């Protein structure tokens, strides 16, 4: 029986709370929660009770080492604000625990190096929860490329579309401050850059990026003629008919997690996406060259009328296209089995001198097209050997964020950024 402690009991934590309390209760158990906010920890215990599990002890952030010493977890699960991941990961490793962390593993190269050094010093393990790897359609692409279906991949075009519900949500909460999240190139695109490393079985060598805040923020709204502004939706009459407003009092989970917890930390989950203080980009374009010489063109836009992705691989034997439409969701605001579910997905192979054909795959049940449940089974169950090697360690976590980190540096400098400048890359390569 593995013993687990959780750090960060916000919206993303629910995925793990329910899995260990219900589905995997025969092989896993919760022993403690840690957070800056007691109200959210109490709500986490409420979720355990709903799942038929006993409540666990709760600990403030400053009591982290005391929690580990007292409750003796084998594994610490980190789902706190991105900028705090490295701190909890390193402290857990030195306290003798393995770690499972939400993506992104951390937000910059220095923090990634700190994690790598702690793993080297302690011999402990870090797993990164890349659920997108486990989604059947993404796994199918990996399988097709591994099987040489289109030969050597020369170039990839990858377009990610975030709509005005899901995309806007990053501009309402702590993610809107780049110091917390690294911006969307790190927080969100870590998924996509990890998929590229996973699909290509390679890692980046050179990155050039452009980005800007073009849609969200007060200045952009003023340019479009907006004259009514508010700081947050709750209690603001101007928010009543704003399609971008988040009304937490209308959603029981958001009300319990955030609205009723504000008195402790003044964290406002429902900030206006057209207010000042947003320091992340909503329009991003990236060029990446990989060590195997594949070239990637990538774009992310966070204000579109649809949600999903289009990715195209051009190879020596043909072309592979995947077109995905996903439903939209607000983190912590609905049923997890609805998060990122497929509305439609088509994977088409165009052989160089043959008839195009569609690849078969079976869509999974649950969140992120079945990726959540498959990942949880890998983390907490007894999975069979995986020929696709979907489990992600700290190396995968580091290489995925560094594409976004390099992109952020490229935007600042106006020049390409080479991975060789990152000390952590040399450590991962054993130099």
From TrEMBL:
Residues 142-417 form the Gfo/Idh/MocA-like oxidoreductase C-terminal domain. One of its GO terms (molecular function) is nucleotide binding. It holds the Pfam family GFO_IDH_MocA_C. Residues 3-130 form the Gfo/Idh/MocA-like oxidoreductase N-terminal domain. It comes from the Bacteria. InterPro entries: Gfo/Idh/MocA-like_OxRdtase_C, Gfo/Idh/MocA-like_OxRdtase_N, Gfo/Idh/MocA_Oxidoreductases, NAD(P)-bd_dom_sf. This is Dehydrogenase. The lineage of its organism: Bacteria, Pseudomonadati, Pseudomonadota, Gammaproteobacteria, Enterobacterales.
């Amino acid at each position: 029986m593995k013993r687990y402690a959780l750090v960060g009991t916000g919206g993303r934590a629910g995925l793990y709370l329910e899995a260990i309390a219900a589905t995997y209760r025969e092989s896993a158990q919760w022993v403690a929660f840690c957070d800056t906010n007691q109200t959210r920890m109490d709500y986490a215990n409420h979720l355990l009770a709903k799942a038929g599990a006993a409540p666990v002890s709760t600990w403030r952030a400053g009591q982290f080492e005391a929690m580990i010493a007292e409750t003796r977890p084998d594994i610490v699960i980190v789902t706190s604000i991105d900028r705090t991941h490295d701190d909890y990961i390193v402290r857990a490793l030195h306290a003798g625990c393995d770690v499972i962390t939400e993506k992104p593993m951390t937000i910059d190269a220095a923090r990634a190096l700190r994690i790598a050094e702690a793993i080297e010093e302690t011999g402990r393990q870090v797993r990164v929860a890349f659920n997108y790897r486990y989604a059947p359609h993404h796994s199918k692409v990996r399988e097709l490329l591994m099987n040489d279906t289109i030969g050597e991949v020369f170039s990839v075009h990858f377009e990610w579309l975030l709509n005005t519900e899901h995309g806007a949500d990053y501009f309402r909460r702590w993610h809107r401050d780049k110091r917390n999240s690294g911006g969307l190139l790190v927080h969100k695109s870590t998924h996509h850059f990890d998929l590229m490393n996973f699909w290509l079985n390679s890692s980046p060598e050179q990155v050039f990026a452009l980005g800007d805040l073009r849609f969200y923020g007060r200045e952009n709204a003023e340019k479009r003629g907006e004259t009514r502004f508010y700081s947050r939706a709750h209690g603001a009459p101007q928010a009543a008919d704003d399609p971008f407003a988040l009304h937490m009092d209308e959603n029981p989970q958001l009300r319990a997690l955030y609205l009723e917890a504000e008195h402790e930390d003044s964290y406002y989950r429902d900030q206006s996406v057209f207010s000042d203080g947003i320091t992340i980009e909503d329009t991003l374009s990236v060029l990446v060259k990989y060590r195997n010489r594949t070239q990637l063109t990538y774009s992310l836009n966070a204000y579109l009328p649809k949600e999903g992705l289009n990715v195209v691989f051009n190879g020596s034997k043909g072309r592979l296209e995947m077109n995905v439409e996903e439903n939209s969701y607000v983190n912590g605001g609905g049923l997890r089995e609805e998060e990122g579910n497929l509305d439609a997905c088509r994977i088409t192979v165009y052989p160089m001198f043959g008839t195009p054909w569609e690849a078969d795959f079976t869509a999974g049940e649950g969140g992120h097209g079945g990726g959540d449940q498959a990942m949880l089974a890998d983390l907490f169950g007894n999975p069979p050997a995986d020929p696709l090697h979907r489990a992600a360690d700290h190396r995968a976590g580091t290489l995925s964020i560094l594409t976004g980190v390099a992109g952020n540096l490229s935007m600042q400098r106006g020049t390409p950024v080479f991975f060789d400048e990152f000390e952590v890359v040399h450590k991962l390569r054993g130099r």
